[in-house]
Amino acid sequence: MTRKSSITVLCGSLAFVAITVSGCTHTMKMVNCKELFAEFYVDPKVARQNVPPSFQVRVHPNGKAMLLILVQDCEKVVLDHIIRVSPMKMAQIWIEVAGPDEVGPALPGTRSSLPTSYWYTLPHQMDSALAHVAFWLVGIDTQLVKEISLGGEPGGIRTGRVVENDSGLGYHWMETNQLWPAPNLVTGRRWFYREYGKFIKHRSEGIVVCRSNFLGEGHIVLEAQPESAISNLNSGTTLRGDTKSVEIDCDVNIRVGAR
Asked: What torsion, rounded to 10 degrees, do the Cα atoms 128, 130, 133, 137 define?
């Protein structure tokens, strides 16, 4: 490593420490995204193993916890009004936690607002090295992966995958989806949280507000390889659940700081 590059890394690292210790709020705009919205019921004991004690896992009337997998293919993502990544793909693995009953106001042009939901997250998986570094510099926990694919347009049968590294480790799925006669445009709000870091303990807390255009629904079978992000949840290597195909535009605010 050259002296110049060493100085650059050192300055970036010092800035990272200063920002995350003092705390800072960041914004992210997600524009013209296609989304796979996949819900899986899992054993609450499995969910509990992956959520810090300070959070209460939400248990549904069927006695199960909810695992949510979101896979997004966006025309562009803009971080802090400055850093633009176009296009950008992300995969997010969330576990539902308890929170207050709330329905926020509907965004203009949407039919209604869905109840607010609350989630504990794993690192955001993304296929852009630029985005991965940018998010790291502001203290947001991410995982750089090799490939993310939704598997084509919604409707009928499609297969998608997340390839986490060069060895092919990851997970893939087959989705059977039927489009509705007319889409349903609503407002969606989700709070999400994460605690992470070994040497400097971090906590991130954010809210995402979306114009969500639901196009259809279906079923999904997901297969995860051992040691992949999903397999490491200990929820099994085969998951069966329900999906919705969605088009979204979202505004995100994320507070990052030391804990």
From this structure: -130
Which one, of 85, 33, 7, lies nearest residue 248 by Cα?
A: 33
Nearest to 50 by CA among 127, 123, 130: 123
Domain range for residue 130?
Answer: 3-258
Indicate the number of domains in the chain.
1
CB atoms within 10 A of CB 100: 7
For residue 40, what are its two tokens?
A: 């899986």
Q: How far apart are CA 183 and CA 179, in angstroms?
A: 8
pLDDT at 2 over 50: no
The CATH number given to whatever domain includes residue 225 is 2.40.400.10
Beta strands in the chain (DSSP E): 24-42, 65-79, 83-85, 88-96, 117-121, 124-126, 142-144, 147-149, 156-163, 170-196, 202-224, 238-258
Distance (Å, whole) CA 252 – CA 190 = 10
For 216-247, write each residue's pLDDT tens digit. 999 999 999 999 999 999 999 999 999 999 99
Whole-number pLDDT of residue 193: 97
From the list 250, 228, 24, 224, the residue with the least C-alpha distance to 125 is 228
The CA distance from 84 to 102, in Å, is 32
